[in-house]
Write a structure and sequence with these properties.
alpha/beta; 327 residues; Rossmann fold; disordered N terminus; globular; 11 helices
Length: 327
């Protein structure tokens, strides 16, 4: 079942979706949007589909962040790709603890579940079982790595930005601490969503924002400027449901594709920032050199923010990388 929406996205409903742990949900909603025009081969298969996998705090409409790359006036507009952006499993616009009202009884899910959620959608809605490529950023990069490792014959290229192939060290401790913080509050197990949970989300978003700065930015801003920027970020995320956040956070705890990276057959472009605190070139990008066969790496200089959504600097890089995949 597909129904249009005036805001630029659509909804599809699975009859059911089975998680890796065997649990099954029925009447599962999936939110998505598309850009561009599909091209078909002689057998009616779409041949120019690129899947966009959004960040931890995004949804399918986050593809608009890429307007400098995929917009009608962008430097890649003549490449005629068909972009499909799907709101991931666990997000309120698709199937999540809050929208199903299951709260803490929602099935625990993994990054692989998120990938299979999108694979099922592509098969059901577009009859797509192989795609041209995947573009993933942040935790969307986790999905791209997982997709490339677990289903290496299903895509021709991967483009992954500001991401990693596993959760370890600082990221693991941060995610574990956030999960423990939520569980330690008795209100988490209540049947009524109360003010205590909203206050916890306020604190969590304050901590998360520290990851959105480059190392250099910490030195460039005054305390007042930092306070103002953090307050704006926290206010924007103040309505996020704590159950959606926790399940999404927990899905990354055991994420680790390191031993499977050699499975990747797709041509792969990894993009990262020299000043990134959360995803560092030293630990998250350079180790890939010996693990993925057909690999390109681009480390850019982040002047202030790492996640400022300025993709204009990458037009030349992306155009050169994608040239062989024009349809």
């Amino acid at each position: 079942m597909i129904e249009s929406d005036k805001l630029g996205y659509r909804k599809h409903v699975f009859d059911e979706f089975e998680f890796e742990n065997g649990q099954v949900l029925r009447d599962v909603e999936v939110e998505y949007t598309t850009r561009g025009t599909p091209k078909y081969d002689d057998e009616g298969n779409i041949v120019n589909a690129i899947i966009y996998c959004h960040r931890f705090n995004g949804n399918c409409l986050s593809i608009e962040d890429l307007n400098q790359l995929i917009g009608s006036k962008s430097g890649l507009s003549d490449f005629n790709f068909f972009y499909i952006s799907i709101t991931s499993l666990g997000y309120p616009e698709s199937c999540s603890p809050s929208t199903t009202k299951l709260k803490f009884d929602f099935p625990k899910y993994s990054i692989r579940d998120c990938v299979n959620f999108k694979r099922k959608f592509l098969s059901d809605v577009f009859n797509i079982n192989s795609i041209l490529g995947i573009l993933g950023v942040g935790t969307g990069g986790y999905e791209a790595f997982t997709w490339g490792c677990e289903y290496p014959d299903e895509m021709e290229f991967l483009i992954i930005g500001s991401s990693s192939f596993k959760t370890n060290g600082y990221r693991y401790l941060t995610s574990k601490a956030l999960s423990s913080l939520i569980e330690s509050n008795d209100a988490y197990s209540d049947n009524v969503y109360n003010e205590q949970l909203s206050k916890i989300m306020f604190s969590i978003n304050s901590l998360i924002y520290t990851q959105y700065f480059s190392k250099r930015a910490f030195q460039n801003f005054t305390h007042d400027e930092l306070d103002m920027l953090m307050d704006a970020f926290v206010e924007e995320g103040s309505t996020e449901d704590i159950y959606d956040f926790k399940f999404r956070n927990d899905s990354t705890l055991n994420y680790d594709m390191e031993d499977k990276l050699s499975n990747i057959k797709a041509k792969t472009l990894i993009v990262g920032a020299s000043e990134d605190i959360y995803y560092s070139p030293e630990f998250d990008i350079y180790p890939l050199k010996d693990k993925i066969e057909n690999l390109e790496i681009n480390i850019f200089d982040a002047d202030e923010y790492v996640y400022n959504y300025d993709y204009s600097r990458f037009i030349g890089l992306f155009r050169e990388f994608l040239e062989e995949f024009k349809k």
